Amino acid sequence: MRKEIIVEVGLVETRVAILEDGKLVEIHIERKQEKKIVGNIYKGKTENVLPGMQAAFIDIGEEKNSFLYVDDLISDNDLPIEKKLFTGEKLLVEVIKEPIKPKGSRVTTNITIPGRYLVLMPKNKNIGISRKIEDEEERERLKKIVQEIKPPDMGVIIRTASEGKEKDELERDLKFLLSTWEVILKKSVILPAPSLLYEDLNLLYRTIRDLFTTDVERFIIDSEEEYKKVLEFLDGFAPHLKDRVHLFRELDNIFEYFGIEDEIRKALKKRVWLKCGGYIVIDQTEALTVIDVNTGKYVGKTKLSETILRTNLEAAEEIARQLRLRDIGGIILIDFIDMEEKEDEQKVISRLEEALSRDKTKTNIVDITKLGLLEMTRKRVRRDLGQMLMVNCQHCDGTGKVYSETTVHAMVLRKLHSLAKVVKEEFIFAEVNTQTKESLLKKRERELNFLKEKYHKKIVLVDNPHLPREKVRILFTGNEEKAKKEGFF
């Protein structure tokens, strides 16, 4: 399988796309003005202990208190939470799930510190290993090395990138993680609660650490400044991957160039068409996600059972991709087209399991219910793609979705950035929605000025109340004399 990582460093957000055989399977977005806290370690303070919920609320210094469930509280006994924790108690916690309104984040006391090859678990003695390392001899070799080098009172997870690595490389990674833990402990003694003790890397460098492995053929980035930093970063632990890093030099937007932008737009729609002519419909609610499979335009050539089987098999593959792409978590119910043969049913489940095995996020196929629905779960860590990019429409009482203001700003600024790179004339008159113009001038003055100064352009926004909020229409490009002649002054 051909795997590529495409990175766009924008004015408002950084976006990372994962392609497998040219198909978009994951999209990660991090916005500069939105604080990312998953993976951060805090010295927290217990605000409330709730015996009825076997949980506690922990103040980590964020707007909302974090939620700590009893199973996420490491302890030597099986006592109820009110016997393990008391109000006002201070403890070290790691954020494992970002806040999703109206809820705060979720935390655990089972701290993990990720490195390139290993993940240190200072409060756990177990050794875990990535399921993507399939060779049994290699698994045993790595476990033996880790058993020799790890402290007896700490645990370690062996990551996929460690496959084929020697003892000295793993030991070097572990030493770095242990020194990081020592710094965290020292800070925890000095700093009051609540305090941030450890901040995880930003999206770009997490991608290099966690996703840029030897199975990635190309890592393409559109920022020359970040390209140089990436090469420096790789010098420290993976110099053999440097020749796979490429600077995108085209004038087009990198996501448009690789067809990613169109795939993102499709991923925000309910209906997804299959190659055979069938389709799936994805309906998300607060409680669960329901996916319905239909034959659509596909009528087959021979028996009905073969038509149904082919549609369901193709749907299983696409459903696994859409779950990754949309980052859907929680309970998921899939209504495949009814199959008479148990053998066909098992083929579809096997296809789904195989496709889900490529998903880094933990998934679990539970069972087929009495109603014939396949029930599964997928771990929810952050907001899904729809929640990230869209908000409820104010004009239909929340029954529809529109792009959020931040998403609109990012889309418009991307278009203006692309124009500023290719337009040779001094002036660019661009027509945008009236509401968009007002919010851009009010909230994105710094980004607009950056474009003007970097490309020596004068960008003039002209408002049009009838233009869609995310659209940009070019009215004129040229010099001042020509602009006056055309009546723009």
List keywords for this structure.
489 residues; five-stranded mixed sheet; 34% helix; 14 helices; alpha+beta
**Helix segment count?**
14
Strand order of the largest sheet: 16-17-18-19-21-20
Main sheet overview: 6 strands, mixed
Helix content: 25-40%
Report the principal-axis shape: globular
Low-confidence stretches are: none
Quaternary status = single chain
Please provide a written account of the structure:
With 489 residues, the chain is of the alpha+beta class. It is 34% helix and 28% strand. Strands 16-17-18-19-21-20 form a 6-stranded mixed beta sheet, with helices on one face. The protein has a 5-stranded mixed beta sheet with strand order 3-2-1-14-15, with helices on both faces. It is globular and about 80 Å long.
Please render the helix and strand layout as text.
Blueprint: E1 3-9, E2 13-20, E3 23-31, E4 41-50, E5 55-59, E6 66-69, H1 81-84, E7 90-97, E8 106-108, E9 113-114, E10 118-121, E11 127-129, H2 136-149, E12 155-158, H3 167-190, E13 195-198, H4 203-210, E14 216-221, H5 224-237, E15 245-247, H6 254-257, H7 260-267, E16 271-273, E17 279-284, E18 288-294, H8 304-326, E19 330-335, H9 342-356, E20 363-368, E21 374-378, H10 385-389, E22 390-392, E23 401-403, H11 405-422, E24 427-432, H12 434-443, H13 445-455, E25 458-463, E26 472-478, H14 480-485
Parallel strand pairs: 1-14, 6-8, 11-12, 14-15, 18-19, 24-25
Antiparallel strand pairs: 1-2, 2-3, 4-5, 4-7, 4-13, 5-6, 7-8, 9-10, 10-12, 16-17, 17-18, 19-21, 20-21, 22-23, 24-26
Helix pairs in contact: 2-3, 8-9, 11-13
